[in-house]
Amino acid sequence: AMIVMKFGGTSVGSGERIRGLVERVRERLPRGPVVVVSALSGVTDLLIRGARESQRRAEAVHEIVTLLLERHRDVIQSLFTSGPQHAQLMSHLGLVLTELQTIYTGVQYLGELSPRSLDVIAACGERLSCEIVAAALEAGGITARGVDARGLLVTDEAHGRAQPIMDETALRVRELLRPLVAHDVVPVVPGFIGSTRDGVTTTLGRGGSDWSAAVIGALLPAEEIQIWTDVDGLLTVDPRLIPAARVIS
Ligand code: ASP
Ligand code: MG
Questions:
Q1: What own/partner pairs with CB < 8 Å and gap ≥ 24 does 169-176 have?
Q2: 208 lines ligand 1 (CB under 6 A)
Q3: Looking at residue 112, what is its pLDDT?
Q4: Ligand 1, atom 5: closest residue by C-alpha
Q5: pLDDT of amino acid 249
Q6: What is the pLDDT of residues 101-127, one digit of tens each?
């Protein structure tokens, strides 16, 4: 048996939340969990803001990269004070942010932000959260492995709103995820991102991690897809806009 457990941005938004995630996964180990994660809350917005700013003001980009560094460093530090995992996560963070800075600089010089570049930029959040969550599971004594969704979810070329190509994704899901679960390893997959047949990074559109979880769950196939989030159930309307929103029974 297998289940998909998807955790949204708030559920991976702090060290404390991630420790909670580890316990939720631990409780369900006998069910063969596959974990799908969003970026840390607020991170995708920052990444996209940085992309827009890079066409205007270089100083703003520097501020945003610094904010991203601090946001992730704080979470990493609250999970691991030191040791090899701390060092490994910090060096991964450094690599991804250096790559990001380079792309921002490219956008700045060209004065042009294509949907294709924006996808590479927006994908950085899930690449980071995925490694942090995998390390936290390992630290909690759960064998886990971060899987690069860019090798997993095959999509068309509609950047910013890519559609998964189900038959090709099915092959990879079966090849890459099933053997891990069969060996009691918990795969941790970044939601929201995929790649074209040629390996070009794509995203499924804002909020797309739920969709990633659904696709992976359908193709495994999983007996259940769980969406762990910061609201209880499905609301009648966005509660940030209409406080009278209520849970649909
Ligand atoms: N991180 C992406 C977003 O903020 C995808 C998601 O969270 O579902 O849109
Ligand atoms: Mg969401």
A1: 169/194, 169/215, 169/219, 170/219, 173/216, 173/219, 173/220, 174/219, 174/220, 176/147, 176/151, 176/152
A2: yes
A3: 93
A4: 207
A5: 85
A6: 999 999 999 999 999 999 999 999 999
Distance 37 CA to ligand 2 centre (A): 10
- Mean residue pLDDT of the chain comes to 95
For residue 44 and ligand 1, the question of a CB distance below 6 A is answered with yes
Which residue's alpha carbon is at the smallest distance from atom 9 of ligand 1? 206
| Region of 5 on the Ramachandran plot (φ > 0 left; ψ -120 to 50 alpha; else beta) | beta
* pLDDT for position 149: 82
Structure tokens, 203: 């995203």
Question: Which DSSP letter does residue 226 get?
Answer: E
Residues 6 or more apart from 54 whose CB is under 8 A from it? 61, 104, 105, 107, 108, 113
CA distance 116 to 12: 27
- Tracing tokens 């090899």 back to the chain, one arrives at 84
